[in-house]
Design a protein that fits this description.
The chain is α/β, with parallel strands linked by helices. It has two domains: about 120 residues, Rossmann fold (3-Layer(aba) Sandwich), CATH 3.40.50; about 180 residues, Rossmann fold (3-Layer(aba) Sandwich), CATH 3.40.50. It is built from 13 helices and twelve strands. A seven-stranded parallel sheet has the order 8-7-6-9-10-11-12, sandwiched between helices. Helix 7 links the parallel strand 6 and strand 7. Helix 1 packs parallel to helix 13 and helix 5 packs across helix 7.
Length: about 325
């Protein structure tokens, strides 16, 4: 008898087909975001759950006892949607899908940097609204990206990939701040400088790109005090997690031109977007597209599937978190 696996959102068809070869798959055909009560019920209905970053499994769900579910295979590299200590205490295995989304997420971070610096969103809105009446020498003047200083907050896989693109493609100077100082070989390969003090990095950067994981320690890491240390000409890019940046402080910094602009792919209360952000022209807003390519999403699904296969075959899953 095949293990029962619940899939909380629709995945690329090829992934769903491959899952069905090894598991009794329960799909979310309407592709709606499950309410907490439905997620809690799944823990008693399925042997495994292939969940996504929008599915919150908290301690109250996971500590209820007598759960049928034995593995949460998270579709994504981040797993802050799961209280891992509670999962561990309940005897649940948690896995993620690292590596396969690195390059595409890094591409999007660079795209946001270019879009906000060159006022791409404003220009696109101008054309669509019929307000563009021809070229002008002072129209929508933006900021040059080439040769500027990029501060990377969190030099993991994605942060490193962004730094590589910026250094090689745009001849940018790279500053980085991360919990564990990078080795000399890593820094030399990027021509990067390590900043032990985050405030130092913020004060010296023309662009700041956030790539640190979401943890209790990084919640509101970039707050009003930190915005005050940034250059007035600086831009903030966030493709990591929304609550790393204090959104109220960001809106204030953008509204008062304390910083020049921001490019965001993540938000504190997804999918709800603060009205203050929606009303600003100097911010580019995307709907959490970081890994949204066919190639990444198929690879993520296959990685999650392999973690499930390994677990139910009695092998250690390749991407074990707990």
């Amino acid at each position: 008898m095949k293990p029962c696996v619940a899939v909380t959102r629709r995945l690329p068809e090829v992934v769903e087909t491959e899952l069905a070869q090894d598991f009794d798959v329960r799909l979310n055909s309407p592709d709606i975001t499950f309410e907490p009560s439905r997620l809690a019920a799944l823990l008693y209905e399925a042997d495994g759950i292939l969940c996504t970053v929008t599915d919150r499994f908290d301690g109250s769900m996971l500590s209820a006892g007598s759960l049928r579910t034995k593995i949460l295979a998270n579709f994504g590299v981040g797993y802050d949607n799961i209280e891992t200590e509670a999962a561990r205490a309940a005897g649940l295995v948690v896995t993620n899908t690292p590596d396969v989304l690195t390059e595409d997420t890094a591409d999007l971070a660079v795209a946001l940097m270019l879009a906000v610096a060159r006022r791409v969103g404003e220009g696109e809105r101008m054309v669509r609204s019929g307000e563009w009446h021809g070229w002008g020498p002072t129209q929508l003047l933006g900021t040059r990206v080439h040769g500027k200083t990029l501060g990377i907050v969190g030099l993991g896989r994605i942060g490193h990939a962004v730094a590589r693109r910026a250094a090689v493609g745009f001849h940018m100077r790279i500053l980085c701040h991360t919990r564990h100082p990078p080795d000399r070989e890593t820094l030399d390969s990027l021509g990067a400088e390590y900043c032990a003090d985050l405030d130092d990095l913020l004060a010296r950067s023309d662009f700041v790109s956030v790539h640190t994981p979401a943890t209790p320690e990084t919640r509101h890491l970039i707050d009003s005090r930190r915005f005050a240390t940034m250059r007035q000409s600086a831009f903030l890019i966030n493709t990591a997690r929304g609550d790393i940046v204090d959104e109220r402080a960001l809106i204030e910094a953008l509204s008062t031109r304390q910083i020049s602009g921001a490019g965001l792919d993540v938000y504190e209360q997804e999918p709800s977007i603060a009205r203050g952000l929606l009303e600003l022209d100097n911010v580019v807003l995307l709907p959490h597209l970081g890994s949204a390519t066919v190639q990444s999403r198929v690879a993520m699904g296959r990685r999650a599937t392999e973690n499930l296969r390994a677990f139910f075959a009695g092998r250690p899953p390749p991407d074990l978190i707990t």
